[in-house]
């Protein structure tokens, strides 16, 4: 299963009840942070999430409401006794931005930078850390991250995360194939095993592939044509809804953002299971006021708020 906390649901400037953009994913005890706006550390402390187990940070773009919380967070992670590397993913310009951010900060861990990736990135859960799979395209990945170029006023990318689900172990199949019980666990983990002079493969004890969990994250952007296919079939689609009403469509177009209805249409076209709206303009005091308009287009719509917690389970 996948747990998530919406740490910040605001866009532009922080408000007393609304931190800036940040979403925390938790997978088998490890964490992925998407964006790191001002106040992210405070929100994490409120939710008692801890800092040390963040393995991957994904940045959509370099506007302040998505990245100004990063310098302090990286320092705090260092103060939490973390020594393992952290992977930071982002659009073109990430290396230069991080160089500026880290110029006065010492970190007791390395940072691996992945800038402007045009291919899927596979990750494995190794020794309780999410690590980049060095053999991309080979073997099984526990998680796959894809990116899409968005339409904003600065280089910006959206993300999709696919969390794999292992096939079911079948005792009957293992017995039928005369697989020694001593090696069942290794085969269940996906290993090929030589035992007593014979080769045993995982498919001798495992069932069919099972569907995993897909989460997609789009902000900040206009609704570009490629988004529906990119988010297709997502269990949860997290999307910006900077403006609640279509009366503000001109503002949305001018500032390269979306209205609630535009985000809802993307959710419908992408055949996602659920839509979570976030990144609300400071002009929206109560996003719930516009909820019904969004639900007319896409029924399974949730209005985000700081501290929202959600669990997505394997089906």
UniProtKB/TrEMBL annotation:
The answer to whether UniProt assigns keyword Amino-acid biosynthesis to this entry is no
Q: Where does Zn(2+) 1 bind?
A: 61, 63, 152, 220
Q: So where's the catalytic machinery, residue-wise?
A: 65
Read off the Gene3D superfamilies from this record: Ribonuclease Z/Hydroxyacylglutathione hydrolase-like
UniProt entry tagged with the keyword Signal: no
EC identifiers of the protein: 3.1.26.11
What Gene Ontology terms describe what this protein does at the molecular function level?
Answer: 3'-tRNA processing endoribonuclease activity; zinc ion binding
The entry's free-text remark on the cofactor is: Binds 2 Zn(2+) ions.
Q: Which cofactor does it need?
A: Zn(2+)
Q: Which Pfam families match?
A: Anti-Pycsar_Apyc1
Reaction(s) catalysed by this chain, per the record, are: Endonucleolytic cleavage of RNA, removing extra 3' nucleotides from tRNA precursor, generating 3' termini of tRNAs. A 3'-hydroxy group is left at the tRNA terminus and a 5'-phosphoryl group is left at the trailer molecule
Q: Which InterPro entries match?
A: RibonucZ/Hydroxyglut_hydro, RNase_Z/BN
Q: Which UniProt keywords are given for this protein, alphabetically ordered?
A: Endonuclease, Hydrolase, Metal-binding, Nuclease, tRNA processing, Zinc
Residues binding Zn(2+) 2 are 65-66, 220, 279
Family note: Belongs to the RNase Z family.
Q: Which HAMAP family match?
A: RNase_Z_BN (MF_01818)
**What is said about its interaction partners and assembly?**
Homodimer.
Job description of the protein: Zinc phosphodiesterase, which displays some tRNA 3'-processing endonuclease activity. Probably involved in tRNA maturation, by removing a 3'-trailer from precursor tRNA.
Q: What is this protein called?
A: Ribonuclease Z
Q: Which organism is it from?
A: Paratissierella segnis
Task: State the organism's lineage.
Answer: Bacteria, Bacillati, Bacillota, Tissierellia, Tissierellales
Q: Which gene encodes it?
A: rnz
